[in-house]
Amino acid sequence: QITLRESGPTLVKPTQTLTLTCSFSGFSLSTSGVGVGWIRQPPGKALEWLALIYWDDDKYYSPSLKSRLTITRDTSKNQVVLTMTNMDPVDTATYYCARTHCTSSSCYVRVFGYWGQGTLVTVSS
Amino acid sequence: DIQMTQSPSSLSASVGDIITITCRASQSISDYLNWYQQKPGKAPKLLIYDAFRLQSGVPSRFSGSGSGTDFTLTISSLQPEDFATYFCQQSSSTPLTFGGGTKVEIK
């Protein structure tokens, strides 16, 4: 059974750095075709993709946020960590981690088949 | 960036209705289009990938079509559990982008 769970602070102050951890089970981030990404959703708004890291340690970032984001993985701990610097109230959102979608025959490296429950991060002084 | 535009932003329908949601990409994305369902307070759930491939376990009343820039999600007979918000997402290239969502409400 594949599960993902986000953890981190629920409240951060403006200008602080946010560190979120995605802990997962039921798969390995060393398996070819597998990736874990971060997506956020401000209250009542649409989804926004942030970053993605793959089995080969290849990384991709949203260009609009690239200067503030870092995504890393720890395959031994089955974790993916996202850091976002210089937090602002507009960054208030539910942050999700999600794994790419794989079937028995293929992996779809930019499709999200499994999602964590999400964690609400509020940015306020 | 590829912009994804969904329409309508909301709709009201009754159980048993056929509904169609449209997603348009700002440039051709071939068939790299995915649909997600999200219920209040829950994470999105993958319904359809690569425009028409039904995710395992998703009821067959859901179907997707389209290619290039224009895509549709159809629910053939709306059920009570289908009242939710639906998002499209292009997986043609990064940055990955989502549509603004379509909220399906009970009439």
Please tell me about this protein's structure.
The complex is a heterodimer of chains A (125) and B (107). Chain A has 125 residues and is mainly beta. Chain A has no helices and eleven strands. Chain A has strands at 3-7, 11-12, 18-25, 35-41, 48-54, 59-61, 69-74, 79-84, 93-102, 107-115, 119-123. In chain A, the strands form two sheets. In chain A, strands 2, 4, 5, 6, 9, 10 and 11 form a seven-stranded mixed β-sheet that branches. In chain A, strand 5 and strand 6 form a beta hairpin. Chain A is elongated and about 50 Å long. Chain A starts with a strand and ends with a strand. The mean pLDDT of chain A is 97. By secondary structure, chain B is mainly β. In chain B, 0% of the residues lie in helices and 50% in strands. Chain B has no helices and eleven strands. In chain B, strands 2, 4, 5, 6, 9, 10 and 11 form a seven-stranded mixed β-sheet that branches. In chain B, strand 9 and strand 10 form a beta hairpin. The model of chain B has no long low-confidence stretch (mean pLDDT 97). Chain A binds chain B through residues 37, 46-49, 52, 60-64, 96, 98, 101, 103, 108, 110-113, 115-118, and chain B through 1, 32, 34, 36, 42-46, 49-50, 55-56, 87, 89, 91-92, 94-101.
How are the SSEs placed, and which strands pair?
The complex is a heterodimer of chains A (125) and B (107).
Chain A: E1 3-7, E2 11-12, E3 18-25, E4 35-41, E5 48-54, E6 59-61, E7 69-74, E8 79-84, E9 93-102, E10 107-115, E11 119-123
Chain B: E1 4-7, E2 10-13, E3 19-25, E4 33-38, E5 45-49, E6 53-54, E7 62-67, E8 70-75, E9 85-90, E10 97-98, E11 102-106
Parallel strand pairs in B: 2-11
Antiparallel strand pairs in B: 1-3, 3-8, 4-5, 4-9, 5-6, 7-8, 9-10, 9-11
